[in-house]
Write a structure and sequence with these properties.
The complex is a heterotrimer.
Chain A: H1 2-12, H2 16-23, H3 25-43, E1 46-52, H4 57-68, E2 72-75, H5 79-87, E3 93-97, H6 101-106, E4 114-118, H7 125-153, H8 159-172, E5 177-182, H9 196-213, H10 216-219, H11 223-226, H12 236-266, H13 272-295, H14 299-316, H15 324-329, H16 332-336, H17 339-343, H18 350-365
Parallel strand pairs in A: 1-2, 1-3
Antiparallel strand pairs in A: 3-4
Chain B: H1 2-18, H2 23-45, E1 53-59, H3 64-75, H4 77-82, E2 83-87, H5 90-98, E3 102-108, H6 112-118, E4 123-128, H7 133-166, H8 171-190, E5 196-200, H9 204-207, H10 209-232, H11 239-247, H12 252-282, H13 288-315, H14 319-337, H15 348-355, H16 358-372, H17 380-404
Parallel strand pairs in B: 1-2, 1-3
Antiparallel strand pairs in B: 3-4
Helix pairs in contact in B: 1-12, 2-10, 3-8, 7-8, 10-12, 10-13, 10-16, 12-13, 13-14, 13-16, 13-17, 14-16
Chain C: E1 3-12, E2 15-25, E3 30-34, H1 41-48, E4 56-61, E5 64-65, H2 70-74, E6 77-80, H3 92-101, H4 109-118, H5 133-144, E7 151-154, H6 163-178, E8 182-186, H7 190-196, E9 199-202, H8 207-215, E10 220-221
Parallel strand pairs in C: 3-8, 3-9, 6-7, 7-8, 9-10
Antiparallel strand pairs in C: 1-2, 1-4, 4-5
Classes of the chains: A alpha/beta, B alpha/beta, C alpha/beta.
Organism (chain B): Compostibacillus humi
Keywords (chain B): Cell membrane, Membrane, Transmembrane, Transmembrane helix
Subcellular location (chain B): Cell membrane
C-alpha cells in the first residue's frame, strides 16, 4: 500500500496547486459561501414604503415600529411616488396610513385604518401586513381597554393613564412566554440545532471536489501505459482499486478536517452519527466518481457530464430551493439523492451498497489484461 | 486574421453538422433544468394536501379560556394553510412523533389560564420533532406570533384587573369580568381581517410573477446556452497540431473567436425560437423595433459573457480549473442580472456591486422594454463594456501567446 | 530456461493474423522479428507479454505455462511497447520512481539511476516533455527493465531515433543478452538486425522479407506458410 501511496504522490505533486485547490475546496468554499450567505441574508432587506397621510404620534409610532423590523428597508414617500415605484417593482409593497388614523383608533373603530398596496411580485407583503395589523391591534386593544375601564370607573382615569399602565404591565410583568426544544425521545437529540444549510453546501462542494479529482482514472488510462500493467506487481484492476482507496481515504480525512473546522467556526456539534454520515457520503461519491470516470475516455467530456450532474444535484439538494415538501411527498428522492442521508444523519446509506456493487462490476469489466 | 477566422468558422460549422445529433440535448438541458426548478418551487408554494403537517395540541389546563386558545390556533390563517391541528394526550403525541406523524406539539400547561390572569409566568412550550426540524421551527414561529397577540390581550386584561381592584371589586366578580374580557379579546384578535384595506397596485400584464420569471428564466437559459454550446465546441488539439498552426500564424484566439461566434449564433437563434411561444403565451405588446433592441441587448450580453469565459480559458491551463471558474462566473453573472431574484431584495452593497455588471445592465433594459414599454434604450454603457471586454480579451491572449513562444 | 512457442494462432474476427506458429528462444539469444506492416509482429509480442490472448497454441517459459502460471510469469517478462508508455509530465527520475513503486522488485534511487546511466540516459531530472526522441526511447526501455526480466520483448525500440542512440541501445541489448536474458525485438532496419540478432523470425505472407534473409548469413527461422 505504501508503494501505491508513493506512486500517487509522484503524480499528484505535478499539479499540486490545482489538485490541492480541489481537495480543500469543500472546506474553503463552504466557509466562503456560508460567510457570503449570512452576510447577504443579514443585509438583505425588503424595500417597502409607508405613506403617512397624517402627522399624529400614533401614526409616527406605527412608522417607527415598522422601521424597527430587522428585515425591512423603509422609505417615507408621497403616495404617488410610492405607487409609481411599486408599479416599477422598485418597492415590494406600500402601506398608507390614512388621515384620521389616530382619531378612528381612539373612537374604537378598527376597519380600514390602513391601505395596503401590493403587486403580483410582492414577496413580503403578507408578513409585513400581519406585522402592521398586529401593531394596530395593540393600539385598538388599548382603546378597548380604555373604554372598559372608563365604563367601570366613569371617567376616573384618562386615556394617557390607562395606556401608560398597559405599557408598564408589558415591561414589568412576566407575560406569556413560549419555549422551543426538540423532542429527545423521537430522534437522536444530538443533531439538535444542526445547521442544515452548512451541510448541504458542504455536500455540494464535496461532490465537485470528488468528481473533479477522480479525473485521474481517465488521464491514467492512456493505452500505451496500460500495457505496462501486464508486467507489474499490480494489474490495472488492482491499480485502480487501490488508488480509489487512497483517494477515498484522502477525502475521508477532508471530512474530518471539515468537521473540525465547522466545529470551531460554527460550533457544530461533532457526533458519531455526523461523522458516520459524512464518511458514508464521501464513500458513496468516491465510488460513484470511480464508476463514472471508468466509463469515459476524454477528460473534457467527463468534466462536462460532471457539471451537468452537479447542476441537477444542486437543484434537487435543497440548497437553493427547499425540497422538504417534495421529499416528504416522494420519500424515494431521499433514497436516490446522496445528500439526504447526509443531512438527516442516517446510519444506512442505500446508495453505498448500490455503488459498491456497480464498482465491483465495472472493476471486473476493466480487466484489460 | 479574418481569413483564418473564416476558415475556423467553416471548420466548426462542419463539426457541428457532424455532431448535430447531440445539439437537441444541449437545447433541452437548460429548459428541463428550469422546468425541474419550477416543479420544485411549485411544490414549495403549494404543499400537497395529504402532506399537510400535523401539529399536536395538548391541553393540560382544560378551562374555557384554553378552549378559546385552541380555537385561536385552529382558526389562525397562517397556521391553517400549512398545518392541521389535532388535540391529543401527551403520550399519544410522543408516540405519534416517534412514528413521524406529527412535526411538533404544543403544550398548554396546568394553571395556564390562572397564571395568565395573575401575571405570573405562563409558558407555552413547543416541542419539535428532531427529524423534521425545518417544520418544527416554522411552527414555533407561528406559535410565537400568536403568543404575541395573547401577550397584548394579557396586558390589557391585567390593566383592567388592576383598575378594577383599585375600584374595590370583589374576587368573584373580578373573575367573571376577566373571563368575559378574555373571550372578548380572543375574538377581537381573531376578527382582525378588516384593519387593512387591501389593493393591488398595477396592470396585470406587466407585473405578474409568471411574466417576470418567464423573461428572467429565458435570460438565464440564454446565458447557459452560450456556455454549453461554447463548451460543446471544444476540441482537444494535440501539441504538434498547435505547433503546425503556429507556423501558419494561427493564434489560439482565432479558435476561440470562432467558437464564440458559433455559440452566439446558436444561442441567439434558440432564444428566438423559445421567445415566440413565450410571446404568444404571455401577450406582451412588442413591436418589430422592440425585438430588434432586445436582440442587440442579448447580443452584447452574450458577447461579454463569452469574453469572460474565454479569458478564463486563456489564463488557466488546467481544464478542471477552467471549468470550475467558468461555473462560478456563470452563477455570479446570472445572480447579478436580477433575473433569478429581483435586485431590489439584495443588500445595498450587493445591489451596488451588481449594478456594475453587464448582466444587470442588460437585463435592466430588457425589463424596461418588455414590461414598461420603454422606447428609448441606451446601449452606450453595454457597448463600452463590450469594447472594453474585447480589448482585455485580445490583450491577454496576445500576452499569453508571447509568453508561450 | 527457454521460451517455447507451439502452434500459436491468432485472428481478429475473420482476419487470420498467424496460424500454427512454432519457435523457441534460448537464453542469451537475441531474436529479431520481421515482417511487413500488419503482419502481426506487435500482436505476437503482446501475446508473449500477456497483454493479449492467443486463440490456440501453447507458450511456456522456463517450464511455466502461460495459461496457468500467469502470476509467476509476469515477474519474468519485460515489455517495451511501440508507443511511448511513459508519463510526459514527469521527469526521468519521477518516471523511474513511479514504475519502480509498482514493480516486483524494490530498487533504490541509486540502482534506478545506474540503470539509466547504463543506457547512457544521463538527463535524470529533466521532464520527459523536453527530452529528445532517443532519450524518450531509452527511458521507455529502462522502465521495462526495472524488475530484471528474463525475457525482454521490444516493439520497434529504435524507431525514429538517431544512429548514436541506436548504437547505444544495441550495445546495451547485447550486454543484456550476454547476461543470459532472452530478447525478442522487432525492427525494420536490416543493418541493425544483421548486426544484433542471432536469429531472425520472419512472419507475414509477403515473401519479400523471407527472400532477403535467405541470402543473409544470419540463421533464419522459417515459418510454415
Amino acid at each position: 500500500m505504501i508503494s501505491i501511496i508513493k506512486s500517487r504522490w509522484i503524480l499528484w505533486k505535478k499539479h499540486w496547486l490545482a489538485n490541492s485547490l480541489f481537495l480543500f475546496l469543500p472546506v474553503v468554499a463552504t466557509i466562503i459561501t456560508m460567510t457570503l450567505f449570512t452576510n447577504i441574508q443579514e443585509d438583505s432587506k425588503v424595500p417597502i414604503a409607508i405613506v403617512k397621510k397624517e402627522d399624529s404620534p400614533m401614526a409616527d409610532s406605527l412608522y417607527e415600529a415598522a422601521a424597527d423590523l430587522p428585515y425591512i428597508r423603509l422609505f417615507n414617500l408621497s403616495e404617488k411616488e410610492a405607487l409609481i415605484k411599486l408599479e416599477r417593482h422598485e418597492l415590494d409593497s406600500v402601506f398608507v396610513i390614512d388621515s384620521g388614523f389616530a382619531e378612528k383608533i381612539k373612537s374604537g373603530a378598527r376597519n380600514r385604518l390602513i391601505t395596503g398596496y401590493s403587486n403580483h411580485g410582492s414577496f413580503a407583503y403578507t408578513p409585513i401586513k400581519e406585522m402592521l395589523v398586529s401593531y394596530v391591534q395593540t393600539l385598538t386593544a388599548q382603546a378597548k381597554t380604555y373604554y372598559t375601564v372608563d365604563q367601570m370607573a366613569g371617567g376616573k382615569w384618562t386615556w394617557e393613564e390607562v395606556t401608560e399602565k398597559i405599557s408598564d404591565i408589558q415591561t414589568e410583568q412576566q407575560l406569556l412566554e413560549t419555549t422551543f426544544h426538540l423532542n429527545s425521545i423521537a430522534g437522536n437529540a444530538t443533531n439538535e440545532e444542526r445547521n442544515r444549510n452548512l451541510w448541504e453546501i458542504w455536500g455540494y462542494f464535496m461532490f465537485i471536489s470528488i468528481f473533479f479529482l477522480f479525473d485521474w482514472q481517465i488521464k491514467e488510462k492512456k493505452t500505451a501505459i496500460l500495457s505496462r500493467y501486464a508486467m507489474m506487481k499490480y494489474s490495472y484492476q488492482q491499480y485502480v482499486f487501490f488508488h480509489t482507496a487512497v483517494y477515498t481515504f484522502m477525502f475521508v480525512s477532508i471530512c474530518l478536517l471539515s468537521a473540525a473546522m465547522f466545529h470551531m467556526l460554527y460550533e457544530e456539534k461533532i457526533t458519531f452519527s455526523l461523522l458516520w454520515s459524512m464518511v458514508m457520503y464521501t464513500i458513496t461519491l468516491s465510488l460513484a466518481a470511480s464508476i463514472l470516470s471508468a466509463v469515459y475516455r476524454s477528460v473534457y467530456v467527463y468534466y462536462w457530464t460532471v457539471l451537468l450532474i452537479s447542476g441537477v444535484y444542486l437543484i434537487t439538494s435543497g440548497v437553493i430551493i427547499p425540497t422538504d415538501g417534495i421529499v416528504s411527498a416522494y420519500p424515494v428522492i431521499s433514497l436516490v439523492h446522496p445528500v439526504y442521508p447526509l443531512v438527516q444523519e442516517k446510519y444506512f446509506h442505500p446508495l453505498v451498497i448500490l455503488f459498491l456493487g456497480l464498482f465491483l462490476v465495472t472493476q471486473r469489466k476493466q480487466k484489460y489484461f | 486574421m479574418g481569413k483564418q477566422l473564416l476558415l475556423f468558422l467553416q471548420l466548426d460549422g462542419k463539426n457541428i453538422k457532424r455532431k448535430w445529433r447531440s445539439l437537441p440535448l444541449l437545447f433541452l438541458f437548460p429548459v428541463l433544468f428550469t422546468l425541474l426548478s419550477a416543479i420544485l418551487i411549485a411544490f414549495l408554494i403549494h404543499p400537497q394536501e395529504k402532506n399537510r403537517i400535523t401539529v399536536g395540541l395538548i391541553d393540560h389546563d382544560d378551562t374555557p379560556e384554553t378552549e378559546g386558545i385552541v380555537r385561536l390556533f385552529a382558526q389562525s390563517e397562517e397556521m391553517n394553510s400549512l398545518f392541521r391541528i389535532k388535540e391529543m394526550s401527551e403520550s399519544e403525541a410522543e408516540q405519534l412523533m416517534e412514528q413521524g406523524e406529527i412535526s411538533a406539539y404544543i403544550i398548554l400547561p396546568k394553571d395556564f389560564t390562572a397564571n395568565l390572569y395573575e401575571g405570573k409566568s405562563a409558558v407555552l412550550p413547543v416541542i419539535g420533532n428532531p427529524n423534521k426540524q425545518m417544520e418544527s421551527h416554522l411552527i414555533y414561529e407561528i406559535v410565537e406570533s400568536i403568543a404575541r397577540h395573547i401577550r397584548s390581550s394579557q396586558a390589557n386584561i391585567l390593566t383592567i384587573h388592576h383598575f378594577a381592584s383599585e375600584l374595590g371589586k370583589n374576587e368573584e366578580k373580578l373573575q367573571d369580568l376577566l373571563f368575559q374580557q378574555f373571550t372578548d379579546f380572543v375574538f377581537y384578535t381573531l376578527s382582525s381581517g378588516q384593519v387593512i384595506h387591501e389593493k393591488t397596485a398595477n396592470n396585470e400584464a406587466t407585473s405578474s410573477p409568471m411574466n417576470y420569471f418567464s423573461i428572467g428564466g429565458l435570460f438565464i437559459i440564454y446565458t447557459s446556452w452560450l456556455w454549453l454550446v461554447y463548451l460543446y465546441l471544444y476540441r482537444e488539439i494535440d501539441e504538434p497540431l498547435v505547433q503546425r498552426m503556429r507556423l501558419y500564424g494561427v493564434t489560439k484566439l482565432s479558435f476561440l473567436l470562432s467558437r464564440m461566434i458559433w455559440s452566439l449564433f446558436i444561442a441567439i437563434s434558440w432564444t428566438g425560437i423559445l421567445f415566440i411561444p413565450l410571446h404568444l403565451l404571455l401577450d406582451f405588446e412588442l413591436g418589430m423595433i422592440d425585438f430588434l433592441k432586445i436582440f442587440v441587448i442579448y447580443f452584447l450580453h452574450g458577447l461579454l459573457f463569452l469574453c469572460c469565459i474565454c479569458i478564463i480559458e486563456i489564463v488557466f491551463s488546467q481544464e478542471k480549473v477552467q471549468l470550475f471558474l467558468q461555473l462560478i462566473t456563470f452563477v455570479v453573472i446570472s445572480l447579478f442580472s436580477g433575473a433569478i431574484i429581483p435586485a431590489i431584495y439584495f443588500p445595498i452593497w450587493l445591489q451596488e456591486l451588481a449594478s456594475y455588471s453587464f448582466s444587470y445592465e442588460a437585463f435592466y433594459w430588457v425589463r424596461e422594454i418588455v414590461f414598461y414599454g420603454r422606447k428609448f434604450v441606451s446601449f452606450l454603457c453595454l457597448l463600452c463594456m463590450t469594447i472594453g471586454g474585447n480589448i482585455i480579451l485580445f490583450g491577454i491572449s496576445s500576452w499569453k501567446e508571447r509568453l508561450q513562444s | 530456461m527457454m521460451l517455447i512457442v507451439e502452434k500459436l494462432s491468432k485472428s481478429y474476427g475473420k482476419n487470420m493474423i498467424f496460424d500454427n506458429l512454432s519457435f523457441n528462444v534460448h537464453p542469451g539469444e537475441i531474436v529479431g522479428l520481421v515482417g511487413e506492416n500488419g503482419a502481426g509482429k506487435s500482436t505476437l509480442l503482446s501475446i508473449l507479454a500477456m497483454v493479449q490472448k492467443a486463440d490456440a497454441g501453447t507458450i511456456t517459459l522456463n517450464h511455466q505455462c502461460y495459461q496457468t502460471d500467469k502470476k509467476e510469469l509476469r515477474r519474468q517478462i519485460g515489455f517495451v511497447p511501440q508507443d511511448l508508455a511513459i508519463w510526459e509530465q514527469l521527469s526521468v527520475k519521477e518516471n523511474m520512481q513511479f514504475f519502480a513503486q509498482l514493480s516486483w522488485v524494490k530498487k533504490d534511487m541509486a540502482e534506478l539511476k545506474e540503470l539509466c546511466l547504463q543506457m547512457q540516459l544521463e538527463k535524470w531530472d529533466e521532464p520527459v516533455k523536453s527530452l529528445s526522441g532517443g532519450m524518450k526511447r531509452k527511458l521507455n526501455i529502462a522502465i521495462s527493465l526495472i524488475h530484471d526480466p528474463h525475457l525482454l520483448l521490444l516493439d520497434e525500440p529504435t524507431a525514429g531515433i538517431d544512429l548514436k542512440s541506436r548504437t547505444e541501445i544495441g550495445r546495451y541489448l547485447k550486454q543484456l543478452a550476454s547476461q543470459g536474458k532472452m530478447i525478442i525485438y522487432t525492427s525494420h532496419d536490416m543493418d541493425e538486425l544483421r548486426s544484433l540478432c542471432d536469429r531472425v523470425l520472419c512472419i507475414g505472407k509477403d515473401p519479400f522479407y523471407k527472400n532477403i534473409f535467405h541470402e543473409s548469413p544470419i540463421p533464419f527461422l522459417a515459418i510454415p506458410d
